[in-house]
Design goal:
The chain has 112 residues and is an all-beta fold. It has strands spanning 2-6, 9-12, 17-24, 33-38, 45-50, 56-58, 66-71, 76-81, 90-95, 106-111.
Amino acid sequence: VQLQASGGGLVQAGGSLSLSCKVSGISVSTNVMGWYRQAPGHQRELVARIFAGVGTYFVDSVKGRFTISRDYTKNTVYLQMNSLKPEDTAVYYCNSQGRFPWGQGTQVTVSS
């Protein structure tokens, strides 16, 4: 299984970024997929999750600002991040319940 996250960058507070996670080896339609992040000096945390059926989950700190979606045809999971805050700065990863190697992730930096 390979999980390739991309789309990070440097953005000012209040801005937006859209992350993509190209998945190979498992289907995003039949597996719970999640976006995680790890800031310097902090543990990796779950940010958002999309379930195999219907439903999503967001950590309280991003509710109303982030959305998660998937494209079955591209086997890709997305994280749309709006109204970004400096505290959103982290390396973002995708995974399925942490079952697979994490990969390099994609750096998101939000300047104040």
